[in-house]
Design a protein that fits this description.
By secondary structure, the protein is of the alpha/beta class. The chain has eight helices and seven strands, in the order βαβαβαβαβαβαααβ. It is globular, with a radius of gyration of 18 Å. The chain binds 1,4-dihydronicotinamide adenine dinucleotide and butane-2,3-dione (BUO). Butane-2,3-dione (BUO) binds next to helix 6. This is diacetyl reductase [(S)-acetoin forming]. InterPro entries: 23BDH (IPR014007), NAD(P)-bd_dom_sf (IPR036291), Sc_DH/Rdtase_CS (IPR020904), SDR_fam (IPR002347).
Length: about 260
């Protein structure tokens, strides 16, 4: 059995997930890059980048809103990479709509992808850790919208508040097994997600494209947009032995937008 640690990152074909996968590879992990099947080409590019860093990597097609897919992804990572130590429940979607306009279907969709996926990831990882006798680490994507509700991001904010609750609960329930459960709460990260948010906000409030993003970035104390690498550094910490005594936390990594 290999002594290299193994991590699985969901939504790792692009954006924050890609940067997390690459950072964990630099930290010495072999990495399972999980994403939707249609993202295979991008995800295989991430696999190649990880291999270029001298680590093993695989692509796993998984829709995180389906429990069977998440369990199969964890099984594939453990079987093909030779262990299982860390899961990063990163995949998520945004919805940009006034609360009065959100439909039942939209609510179901965002909760299935942003919330159910985190429960499935925790369940699948905890079962694999128990099978392998590993004191593993679970890290999930929250948001500044997990700490403060943001207008026009109502369903999204609700889904991220739920991630925070699940993180606190799972941390307490899994502590006896030595498993830690934490979450990262980014602010305004320059990824495809904010391209979409900016576009939809422009449609709603009539501001020119880019203006909503600029106004949000102007409110950041450190004065610049967040990069996926800024987020990956925090996940690297949560996944490391340096965070062995940290659990149940949602860490704001927002350049100074919210303060606790
Ligand atoms: N971009 C931002 O400003 C912020 C992002 N976040 C969170 O960080 C996480 C990553 O966001 P970004 O990289 O910005 O988004 P992104 O839209 O650039 O990438 C999301 C990835 O998740 C994948 N994905 C979507 N639905 C999926 C599903 N059902 N199953 C498997 N994979 C799926 C997509 O294919 C994509 O590769 C999300 O949970 C998001 O809510 C949190 C705070 C701020
Ligand atoms: C995408 C996201 O989480 C926010 C609050 O912008």
């Amino acid at each position: 059995m290999s002594t290299t640690k193994v991590a699985l990152v969901t939504g790792a074909g692009q954006g924050i997930g890609r940067s997390i996968a690459l950072q964990l590879a630099r930290d010495g992990f072999d990495v399972a890059v999980a994403d939707l099947a249609f993202q295979e080409e991008k995800a295989r590019g991430v696999v190649a980048e990880i291999e270029a860093l001298g680590r093993a990597a695989i692509f796993v097609a998984a829709d995180v809103s389906k429990k069977d897919d998440v369990v199969s992804a964890v099984d594939a990572a453990a079987a093909q990479l030779g262990g299982f130590d860390v899961i990063v429940n990163n995949a998520g979607i945004a919805q940009v709509k006034p609360i009065l306009d959100v439909t039942p279907e939209e609510l179901e969709k965002i909760f299935a992808i942003n919330v159910n996926s985190v429960v499935f990831g925790i369940q699948a990882a905890a079962a694999k850790f128990a099978e392998l006798g590993v004191k593993g680490k679970i890290v999930s994507a929250a948001s500044i919208a997990a700490v403060k509700g943001f207008p026009i991001l109502g369903a999204y904010s609700a889904s991220k508040f739920a991630v925070r609750a699940i993180t606190q609960v799972a941390a307490q329930e899994l502590a006896p097994q030595g498993i830690t459960v934490n979450a990262y709460a980014p602010g305004i990260v320059g990824t495809g997600m904010w391209d979409l948010i900016d576009e939809k906000l422009s449609e709603i409030n009539g501001k020119p494209r880019g203006q909503n993003l600029k106004e949000n970035v102007d409110s950041i104390a450190l004065g610049r947009i967040e990069t996926p690498e800024d987020v990956a550094g925090v996940v690297s910490f949560f996944a490391s032995e340096k965070a062995d005594y940290v659990t149940g936390q949602v860490l704001l990594v927002d350049g100074g937008m919210l303060y606790n």
